[in-house]
Amino acid sequence: MTSFEGQGRSVVTDPSELLPVDRYREFVFRALPRPQPIELRVGDTLGLTLADDVFAEEALPAFANSAMDGYAVRAADVAAADQDAPVEVQVVGEAAAGGSSPPHVGEGQAVRIMTGAPVPSGADAVVPVELTSGSGATVAIYVAPSVGANVRPVGDDVARGQKLVSAGTRLGPAHIGLLTAIGAGVVRCFPAPRVVVISTGDELVSGQRDLGPGQIRDSNGPMLAAMVRQAGGAAYAVGPIRDDRGALGAAIEENLGHADMVIMSGGVSAGAHDHVEDVLTQLGDVAKFKVAMRPGMPQVVGRVRGVPVLGLPGNPVSAFVSFEVFVRPALRVLQGRRDLLRPMVTAALSEAVVSAEHKRTYLRVRLSRQEGHWVATPTGHQGSHAITSIADADGLAEVPEDVTKLDAGEPVRVHLLIEV
Fold it and tell me: Which residues pair with residue 354 across a beta bridge?
């Protein structure tokens, strides 16, 4: 059994042992493989990041068409039309969207036309039906249209050869509509990362089981799996796994085949039953750090057979904050995204707060709008075990490492807990 010994010093963590948050994030990024794009049908790409620029192989619209229901005319024929002296022209046919080719418009003629229908040859303007009278063999025109009035020319929206969507764009419904409209059947995108979430601890039981002495329900596994899905990944929850080297090693090895990343919660601190670092060292390359942050100081990062493995603290709030600060940006890297961090706002604190010396503190806060400004209010108890503090939070307020106290009204940067 591993010995469990103290070091006989006056502080738990010496400042010289702490690694800055941004420096540790670089270690995490360094462990990630280069994301590989795949070819997908356009309809299956919602939320994915485009790997290549897409150029239009056809114009949009592909033919000149009417922007209104009305009459296609030659502008010169009705140039004298006005409210008091309409010009009457002969109706020689009809043009409907999706219909057969409409008849040619000659001198003194018009074709009844529907929105989206091809503009007949000979016509160079469309007069809205509201500005006409009559619906038989002739129609009276009450307004003189200019050439091109209410006509959508070829390529009015998209010209052939135009860059349509840039690489790095996260595709939304409108992009899918646009790509479909110009006939792009498939595009190359970065697929959703497959993430195995392994929760560890002898004290953990699955959520629906009755609790025995000293046991708690595994909330980290479901929470982290949900965070993976919210971040655009495909989550596979495993566990809880007991604090046993053999069981931990087996759980990792059995799931590497379908993982682009493995996240482990618990077992990364200094306790006698914290085996994650040892197990990962046996299986691959690993590094353990004390990161200058609260909550979430103990962190483990490594690679096993090319798969990045991140070890997060076991306390729920520490796991949540660690995911937001390190895992979510890493997943965005694997998705080919360029916006790696959450959006931020500056807010005034509603009350004074204290922060740990030499550590960047992430306060869980609710946001409100007061007199045109954001106000951040801590969500009660800020302990690393207090799940209510994250459930009630709109954001994480960041207190810098060199600040130990902030008064009410002082500004803080708040990382918004919203998905964009």
Answer: 405
Question: So where are the chain's domains?
Answer: 15-36+191-334, 38-53+166-190, 65-152, 344-416
User: Is residue 1 over pLDDT 50?
Assistant: no
Interatomic CA distance for residues 258 and 410, integer angstroms: 47
In this structure, how many other beta carbons lie within 10 angstroms of the beta carbon of residue 337? 19
Which DSSP string do the residues of 144-202 spell out, in sequence order?
Answer: -PPTTTTEE-TTSSB-TT-EEE-TTPBP-HHHHHHHHHTT--EEEEEPPPEEEEEEE-T
Query: 263 near 312, Cβ under 8 Å?
Result: yes
| First-to-last C-alpha distance (Å) of the chain | 47
CA distances from 348 to 198, 353, 369, 414 (A): 38, 12, 10, 10
Backbone angles phi, psi at 336, to 5 degrees: 75, 15
Q: 234 pLDDT exceeds 90?
A: yes
Place of tokens 């409209």: 181
CATH homologous superfamily for the domain 65-152 = Molybdopterin biosynthesis moea protein, domain 3. (2.170.190.11)
Identify the burial level of 219 via C-beta atoms within 10 angstroms of its C-beta, where 0-12 means exposed, 13-18 middle and 19 or more buried.
middle
pTM (2 d.p.) = 0.85
Q: How far apart are CA 2 and CA 126, in angstroms?
A: 86
CATH topology (fold) of 38-53+166-190: Molybdopterin biosynthesis moea protein, domain 2 (3.90.105)
Identify the CATH class of 15-36+191-334: alpha beta
Q: Please state, in angstroms and as integers, the Cα–Cα distance from residue 320 to each residue in 272, 297, 312, 400, following that order.
A: 24, 12, 9, 19
Q: What is the mean pLDDT of the chain?
A: 91
Q: Give me the count of residues in the chain.
A: 420
Residue type, 133: S
* CATH topology for the 344-416 domain: Beta-clip (2.40.340)
